[in-house]
Specification:
- The structure holds two protein chains of two kinds.
- By secondary structure, chain A is mostly helical.
- Chain A is 65% helix and 2% strand.
- Chain A has helices at residues 7-31, 62-91, 101-124, 127-132, 135-138, 143-170, 173-181, 186-190, and strands at 36-37, 51-52.
- A two-stranded antiparallel ribbon of chain A has the order 1-2.
- In chain A, α1 packs antiparallel against α2 (62-91) and α3 packs antiparallel against α6.
- Chain A is globular, with a radius of gyration of 19 Å.
- Chain A starts with 6 loop residues before the first helix and ends in a 12-residue tail after the last helix.
- Chain B is of the alpha+beta class.
- Chain B folds into two domains: 3-58, no CATH class; 70-244, Sulfite Oxidase, Chain A, domain 2 (Alpha-Beta Complex).
- In chain B, β7 (187-192) and β8 (195-196) form a beta hairpin.
- In chain B, 45% of the residues are buried.
- The chains are: A mainly alpha, B alpha+beta.
Chain lengths: 202, 252
C-alpha cells in the first residue's frame, strides 16, 4: 500500500523552507548594520562587546527591506509552524518513523526548542511587545542579551538547514524531493535513512 | 488516487477562495478600526499589516515601556546624524532658540504656538527609558519634557483626529497614530539626562516614543499637525520612512 505524507506537512514544509531562506538573507542584511553583539540591557559603539563578528559594518539602508522581509517571513514561518505542530500533535507527525535516533533528536530540538527560542528572542527585541510583557526581555537578561541569543539560535538553525540539505543531496536527491513534493513515503522506505551509517547512497 | 486528488483539489480551491474572502473582509475591518498601517500598500504590506494590526488589535493600548533607575543610565549616548545645517536652524541655535516656536495645528480647536519657555512652564514628565536603534544598538537615558497628549489637549484636539504628524527642521518627517500620541510616555522632550537637549540630540525639542524604534523619535521639532487621514499628507504613507525603505510602524 502506498503511504503519503499529509498535504499539510508538504505545504508547511515548503512555506517554512522559503521563509527560512528569506529569514537568513534578511537576517544577514539586518546584522550587517551593526555586527557587534553585547550581553545585558544596552550596548553601542564605544561600549564593550561580547562578540565582534568579522563582518563589515554596512549602513546603506539594507536594514529597511531586511526588516520588512524578515517580519513577513517570520509571519509565514510562525503561522505554518503553528499549523504543523497543532495538526501534528494529535496525528503523531513527530514520530518521524523513517529517521534514526540522532535525526529525531535533532528535528525535535529544532522544532520544539530552537525555532521557539528564535521567535521568543525576536519578539523580545520589539519595544512594543516588550511594553506588554517586560518579562520576555528581563528573563533573558536584557535587550542586548535577547539579540545575542537570537543570533546564536539563528546560527544553529542555519547549521541544521545546511546539514539537512547535505543529507538530502547524498541520500537520493530526486527521490527525496519527490517525497517532499508529492508526499510519497514508499521511496523513503525503499531507501531507509536509519541504517547504521545514517544514510544509504543511491 | 485520482479520486483523492480531485477531492483534495476541490477542498484546496474552496480553502483558497474562503481565505481570499476572509483576508479581504479582515483588511476592510482593519482599515475601519484603524489597524491598517498607512504604508500597508507597499511591497511588504502584508507583513506590515499583520504586525501593526496584531499589535493594535491584540496588545494592551496602554502598556508602558520599561523605566529604569538613574544607575542604569548609559555612559555613552550615541549620536545618529548631525544637527541640520540650514540657515534657519543655525540662526535659532545661535540665538539659544529664543525665537523658536512650536506650532500645533490641523484638527485642533485652538491652533497654537509655544515658545521653549512656555513648554518648560507646563507640567513635565521625566522618564528613564531605553532607546533602540533600528541598526541594533541601544542605550538608556533620562528624558524630560511635556507629554504630547497634554499639548494636544491644550490645543483642543478634535475627536476626528486619528494621526499626529511631526515636522522637523531637517528633511525627515513622521507620524504616529492617536493611540501612540495619547500614550503617557510619548513625550516632547527638551532635556536629556537633566540638561538642555544638545543640538546633536534634537534641540530644542524632540519627540520620544519609547514603544517604538529610535527613528520614530523625530528631532528638531518645528510643527505638529493633527489629521483625520494621512492619505493627503505629503507621500500619503505617513512618514518619509517608506520612501527610504523603512516601515512606517516602528513598534516592530
Amino acid at each position: 500500500m502506498n503511504q503519503y505524507r499529509p498535504p499539510l506537512v508538504l505545504v508547511t514544509h515548503w512555506l517554512t523552507a522559503v521563509a527560512v531562506f528569506a529569514l537568513m538573507i534578511s537576517g544577514v542584511a539586518i546584522l550587517l548594520a551593526h555586527p557587534r553583539l553585547y550581553w545585558g540591557e544596552t550596548g553601542t559603539l564605544g561600549t564593550p562587546s561580547l562578540i565582534d563578528l568579522p563582518l563589515p559594518m554596512v549602513l546603506t539602508g539594507q536594514t529597511g527591506w531586511g526588516r520588512s522581509l524578515h517580519f513577513l517571513a517570520a509571519w509565514v514561518i510562525v503561522l505554518s509552524g503553528v499549523s504543523y505542530v497543532a495538526a501534528g500533535v494529535p496525528r503523531r507527525y513527530f514520530r518521524w518513523p523513517d529517521y534514526n535516533g540522532l535525526q529525531r533528536r535533532t528535528y525535535a530540538i529544532v522544532v520544539f526548542f530552537l525555532a521557539p527560542l528564535a521567535v521568543w528572542t525576536g519578539l523580545a527585541m520589539s519595544p512594543a511587545v516588550e511594553s506588554v510583557m517586560p518579562s520576555i526581555v528581563t528573563l533573558l537578561g536584557g535587550h542586548q542579551s535577547a539579540r545575542t541569543i537570537h543570533f546564536v539560535a539563528a546560527s544553529l538553525i542555519t547549521l541544521f538547514v545546511a546539514g539537512h540539505i547535505v543529507m538530502i543531496a547524498t541520500s537520493g536527491f530526486t527521490a527525496r524531493m519527490r517525497g517532499m513534493i508529492v508526499g510519497s513515503l514508499d521511496v523513503a522506505r525503499d531507501r531507509p535513512l536509519d541504517s547504521a551509517q545514517g544514510r544509504s547512497a543511491p | 488516487m485520482s479520486a483523492i486528488t480531485r477531492r483534495r483539489l476541490v477542498r484546496g480551491a474552496a480553502t483558497l477562495a474562503g481565505g481570499a474572502v476572509g483576508i479581504g473582509a479582515t483588511a476592510s475591518l482593519a482599515r475601519r478600526l484603524g489597524w491598517l498601517a498607512p504604508d500597508a500598500g507597499e511591497w511588504f504590506g502584508l507583513g506590515e499589516a499583520l504586525t501593526y494590526g496584531s499589535h493594535r488589535a491584540l496588545m494592551a493600548m496602554h502598556s508602558m515601556a520599561r523605566e529604569f533607575s538613574r544607575s542604569d543610565i548609559s555612559k555613552v549616548v550615541p549620536v545618529n546624524g548631525p544637527a541640520p545645517e540650514t540657515d534657519d536652524y543655525q540662526r535659532l541655535l545661535a540665538d539659544d532658540f529664543t525665537p523658536w516656536r512650536l506650532t500645533v495645528n490641523g484638527l485642533v480647536s485652538r491652533p497654537s504656538t509655544f515658545s521653549l519657555a512656555d513648554l518648560k512652564r507646563l507640567p513635565s514628565r521625566s522618564q528613564i527609558t531605553e532607546q533602540t536603534c533600528e541598526e541594533g544598538w541601544s542605550f538608556i537615558a533620562e528624558w524630560t519634557g511635556v507629554p504630547l497628549a497634554l499639548l494636544l489637549d491644550l490645543a483642543g484636539i478634535q475627536p476626528g483626529a486619528k494621526w499626529v504628524v511631526f515636522y522637523p527642521f531637517d528633511q525627515w518627517w513622521d507620524s504616529v497614530d492617536i493611540v501612540e500620541a495619547r500614550h503617557p510616555q510619548t513625550l516632547l522632550a527638551y532635556a536629556l539626562n537633566q540638561r538642555d537637549l544638545p543640538a546633536d540630540h534634537g534641540a530644542p525639542l524632540r519627540v520620544r516614543v519609547p514603544r517604538q524604534l529610535g527613528y520614530k523619535s523625530i528631532k528638531y521639532l518645528s510643527r505638529i499637525e493633527a489629521v483625520a487621514s494621512l492619505d493627503h499628507v505629503r507621500n500619503g504613507k505617513g512618514s518619509q520612512s517608506p520612501d527610504e525603505g523603512y516601515s512606517w510602524y516602528a513598534g516592530i
